[in-house]
């Protein structure tokens, strides 16, 4: 079955540590996205990528980094510069371009819950 | 002011009630409108989408867009306990623009048996 896989489901980070969240999709989607979700704040865009080897900052990119070396993969690194990283992180993918068909919209992974200990 | 405003709730209704969830937005250029359902500790899943103004029905769910008022709604008829989730509205610009969704903050719904 096609879909997006995020791992791990739960992640604990010590102060000053970098951690990497994995996101893999087999939907053949061009675009991939990382969102952060905090209670009462909805989804905030961290980074997105339209094609391999290219990505753009979203609204809250500070303290995060990404890479897009393969179409299927879009890992997110939460660096020590991110002072408040405890949150639920969601990866999504979509086709890129015009579409009014049933595949319009984003497909989300199941999320990674990151906690600072 | 946020581009998309959504009442966070929480909203509790008895089983069988009609539920109305709403979002308002400020950018008149938004043209595609979506509703996502998110169960606890899961990723959102696309529930309904509409293009421009009008209504769209799918089973117990009806999505309504009023572009003149910059207002979208999701109606759930004969609500069930399995409908208990957070509902997020989302919208995006016409084709040719950077294709990112702008989300509302979500409304938490509980349907009581």
Summary keywords:
heterodimer; A: 117 residues; mainly beta; seven-stranded mixed beta sheet; four-stranded antiparallel beta sheet; 11 strands; 50% strand; B: 113 residues; six-stranded mixed beta sheet; five-stranded antiparallel beta sheet; 0% helix; 54% strand
Describe this structure in words.
The complex is a heterodimer of chains A (117) and B (113). Chain A is an all-beta fold and 117 residues long. Chain A is 0% helix and 50% strand. Chain A has no helices and 11 strands. In chain A, strands 2, 4, 5, 6, 9, 10 and 11 form a 7-stranded mixed beta sheet that branches. Chain A has a 4-stranded antiparallel beta sheet with strand order 1-3-8-7, with no helix packed on it. In chain A, strand 5 and strand 6 form a beta hairpin. Chain A is globular, with a radius of gyration of 14 Å. The mean pLDDT of chain A is 89. By secondary structure, chain B is an all-beta fold. Chain B is 0% helix and 54% strand. In chain B, the strands form 2 sheets. In chain B, strands 2, 4, 5, 9, 10 and 11 form a 6-stranded mixed beta sheet that branches. In chain B, a hairpin with a 4-residue loop joins strand 7 and strand 8. The termini of chain B are far apart. The mean pLDDT of chain B is 90.
Walk me through the topology:
The complex is a heterodimer of chains A (117) and B (113).
Chain A lengths: L3 E4 L2 E4 L5 E7 L5 E8 L3 E10 L2 E4 L6 E3 L9 E3 L8 E8 L12 E2 L3 E5 L1
Chain B lengths: L3 E3 L4 E4 L4 E7 L6 E7 L6 E7 L2 E5 L2 E6 L4 E6 L8 E8 L9 E2 L3 E6 L1
* E-strand count of chain B: 11
Multimeric state:
heterodimer
Largest protein-protein interface: A-B, 28 and 24 residues
Q: Summarize the helix and strand pattern of chain B as letters.
A: EEEEEEEEEEE
Beta-strand fraction estimate of chain B: over 45%
Overall spatial form of chain A: globular
Instruction: Identify the overall geometry of chain B.
Output: globular
**What is the arithmetic mean of pLDDT of chain A?**
89
Separate helix tally of chain A = 0
The number of helical segments of chain B is 0
Percent range for β-strand residues of chain A: over 45%
Reported for the largest beta sheet of chain B, the result is: 6 strands, mixed
* Share of helix of chain B, binned: under 10%
Uncertain stretches of chain B: none
The end-to-end distance of chain A, rounded to whole angstroms, is: 36 Å
């Amino acid at each position: 079955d096609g879909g997006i896989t995020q791992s791990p489901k739960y992640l604990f980070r010590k102060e000053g540590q970098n951690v990497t969240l994995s996101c893999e999709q087999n939907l053949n989607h061009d675009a991939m996205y990382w969102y952060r979700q905090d209670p009462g704040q909805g989804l905030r865009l961290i980074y997105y990528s339209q094609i391999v080897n290219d990505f753009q900052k979203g609204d809250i990119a500070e303290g995060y980094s990404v890479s897009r070396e393969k179409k299927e993969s879009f890992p997110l690194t939460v660096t020590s510069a991110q002072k408040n990283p405890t949150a639920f992180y969601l990866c999504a993918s979509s086709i890129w371009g015009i579409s009014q068909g049933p595949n319009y919209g984003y497909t989300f992974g199941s999320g990674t819950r990151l906690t600072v200990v | 002011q946020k581009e998309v405003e959504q009442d966070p709730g929480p909203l509790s209704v008895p089983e069988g009630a009609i539920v109305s969830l709403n979002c308002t937005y400020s950018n008149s250029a938004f043209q595609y409108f979506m509703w996502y359902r998110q169960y606890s500790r899961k990723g959102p899943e696309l529930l309904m989408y509409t293009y421009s103004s009008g209504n769209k029905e799918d089973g117990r769910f009806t999505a309504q867009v009023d572009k003149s008022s910059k207002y979208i709604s999701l109606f759930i008829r004969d609500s069930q306990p399995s409908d208990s989730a957070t509902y997020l509205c989302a919208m995006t610009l016409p084709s040719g623009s950077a294709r990112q969704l702008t989300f509302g903050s979500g409304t938490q719904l509980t349907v009581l048996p």
